[in-house]
Design brief:
The chain is mainly α and 206 residues long. Helix content is 54%, strand content 7%.
């Protein structure tokens, strides 16, 4: 070791209070050919009545500073880095999908009936379509109650049926991870609402 790399001249790159964390950083740097040491007492423990914690300093040889900084940056980086290998970083949405349980198509159809405000599509994670259908269903109910348009019960029944049947297939798309974009959901759901109201009004008794 040269005099420029004398132990007393080593450069601090991290400060931690966790001995396990300090060991992990030291081992990580060591694995990447960085001359590294821990300054402080890794064996010190924090007493329950104490307000202070032993500070551990991670120091590296001056000649390895640049290498150490690259390695530490890679240790916390979210992108692929030579120090972390060539494995691709998994997308967060893909991670989330692994924890989403498959949904029941029969359950979606059933929910559309017991929660007749687009419940089937909401359950199937087709929120845009569910919102449009819910608006149409609520609109039909308000038309019946406030405007006395009894024929709108047909629009209500049609939209509940659309939610029930559509949710059955929407769940299949969700389980296959093929949920259509919100714009497409809105278009067909709006079309269903318009057709339901048109059918109800055109078949009304004169």
């Amino acid at each position: 070791m040269s005099s420029g790399d004398d132990d007393g001249d080593w450069i601090e790159v991290r400060r931690v209070t966790d001995p396990i964390g300090a060991d992990m950083i030291r081992d990580f740097l060591h694995e990447h050919d960085v001359r590294v040491a821990i300054r402080g007492n890794p064996q010190a423990t924090r007493m329950t009545w104490s307000q202070t914690t032993e500070v551990l300093r991670i120091v590296v040889a001056p000649g390895d500073l640049e290498k150490a900084e690259e390695a530490l940056a890679a240790m916390t980086s979210e992108s692929t880095h030579p120090f972390r290998g060539a494995g691709a970083i998994e997308d967060e949405s893909e991670k989330a999908d692994k924890f989403v349980k498959p949904r029941s198509a029969i359950g979606a159809a059933f929910l559309a009936v017991i929660v007749p405000i687009g419940g089937g599509h909401f359950y199937a994670r087709h929120g845009a379509a569910g919102t449009i259908l819910a608006s149409g269903i609520v609109g039909a109910v308000l038309g019946m109650v406030l405007a006395g348009r009894g024929e709108l019960v047909r629009a209500w029944a049609l939209l509940v049926a659309v939610d029930m049947v559509g949710a059955f297939f929407a769940v299949r798309r969700f389980n296959a991870k093929r949920v259509p974009p919100e714009s497409a959901q809105r278009r067909w759901a709006l079309g269903a609402v318009v057709l339901a109201f048109a059918a109800a009004l055109l078949t009304a008794e004169r």
